Fold this sequence. Notes:
Blueprint: H1 2-8, H2 25-30, E1 41-47, E2 54-56, E3 64-66, H3 68-81, E4 85-90, H4 108-119, E5 124-129, E6 142-144, E7 147-149, H5 150-167, E8 171-174, H6 181-191, E9 198-205, H7 212-218, H8 238-249, E10 254-258, H9 264-273, E11 278-282, H10 284-295, H11 301-315, E12 319-322, H12 325-335
Parallel strand pairs: 1-3, 1-4, 1-12, 4-5, 5-8, 8-9, 9-10, 10-11, 11-12
Antiparallel strand pairs: 2-3, 6-7
The structure holds ligand PBG.
Ligand PBG is lined by residues 128, 130, 132, 140, 175-176, 211, 214-215, 283-284.
Amino acid sequence: MRDLIATRGVDLPGRERPRRLRANGALRTLVRETRLASAALVAPLFVVSGRGRREEISSLRGHARLSPDLALAEAHRLAGLGVGGVLLFGIPDAKDHYGHAAADPDGPVSETLRRLKAEKLPLALVADVCLCEYTTHGHCGVLEGELVDNDATLPLLADAAIAYAEAGADIVAPSAMMDGQVAALRSGLDGAGFTGAAIMAYASKHASTFYSPFREAAGSTPSFGDRKSYQMDPANGREALREMELDAQEGADILMVKPAITSLDLIARARDRFDLPLAAYQVSGEAAMIEAAAARGWIDRRSAILETLTAIVRAGAGNVMTYFASDVATWLKETA
Ligand code: PBG
């Protein structure tokens, strides 16, 4: 063999042999740079009114719309697994043109928050703040004709955030991509006495095709047009950094980037540029791609989930919203 190498005139590597530390599992584990932690993961939960109500979501394997009592049971299970938090989305009984139900103190999100708060679970309670699940037209803001009226939307978002803070949310997460939404929430919350409620801004949010499964889950597909006049063009990275800068200035406590896998460059750049906690959202379509390929036997489900989440954390995300929070926490517990 040596002769063969010599006759071919192949140059052998010198002292640098990175493969040394890949020789066995113990060495690879020892030098691993990125480790997933259950406590850094946040599980999305979809809540509806009623009791004992559970509606499977066909586009999101393993997820269901839950009434507050069942959401509570699910939160107990997630807390037991060591998951860091839950992110609540509400689907109201009735929608209207303005999405008023978003701020209903008796709506499913507020009710679930109140009950969760009383349980004192070791979970961060996060509430998504947007109008799209609550408007008849499915847009994230108030419509003036066919246009979304930015400034008319802000007080409605602030009202919803106040209702959730009042019900017990630790963190409110505005996702409507209205200009000034973080400042509007901050002044609304402070004015109502909720100075302690934190804001996680969906700061860099592209108009992505990967939200489609979520819209089936939340019944929030726009009845006409698309979200491109408020969510960002996926082609834009500098604009994303500017959005994050603005949200930081407006008082965001945590910056979030979504989708995650298509924004690894932005996660890495944001991590260098801002000293706020940085989160990423592995959105519904990212999960659906993995589930669909795994169901066909084309990829290994567990490996794909762990590899994508590890890459998101490696890029710089300190927290990840993911539909796989429960799976990952279960696996981490098994291997601990
Ligand atoms: C509400 C909202 C959406 C998501 C999070 N908050 C939907 C959208 O913007 O259309 C997407 C989450 C996911 O796809 O998992 N505006």
